[in-house]
């Protein structure tokens, strides 16, 4: 992930999900209630969260200076009592990463619309 940041381009994929270790040894989650459509999101004991991050394996494309990069994966388990602190730090990292983004250049699209609009008006 660090190499992606150094090169200035690339994608990092993040995923998170609830982590249930051994479902047989733990007591069953509360039974389904008719009036609560999200009954399974309220377990008796909070569950840890599994966070995964990986870059996509890239291949050499013709006309680019990119090298072949192997896939790198990281994962960590965040305990329920540490979730708030984790998400505070995670938000800071996301904000820092967004500062390096460039605003998308839409000038070409506007120019094409003007040309197309001008061509339609001259026909009529």
UniProtKB/TrEMBL annotation:
Presence of the UniProt keyword Transferase in the record: no
Transmembrane segments: none
UniProt biased composition (Basic and acidic residues): 33-43
Comp. bias regions, Basic residues: 101-117
Keywords, ordered alphabetically: Cytoplasm, Ribonucleoprotein, RNA-binding, Signal recognition particle
Family of this protein: Belongs to the SRP14 family.
PANTHER family reported in the protein's UniProt record: SIGNAL RECOGNITION PARTICLE 14 KD PROTEIN
Role: Component of the signal recognition particle (SRP) complex, a ribonucleoprotein complex that mediates the cotranslational targeting of secretory and membrane proteins to the endoplasmic reticulum (ER).
Protein's recorded name: Signal recognition particle subunit SRP14
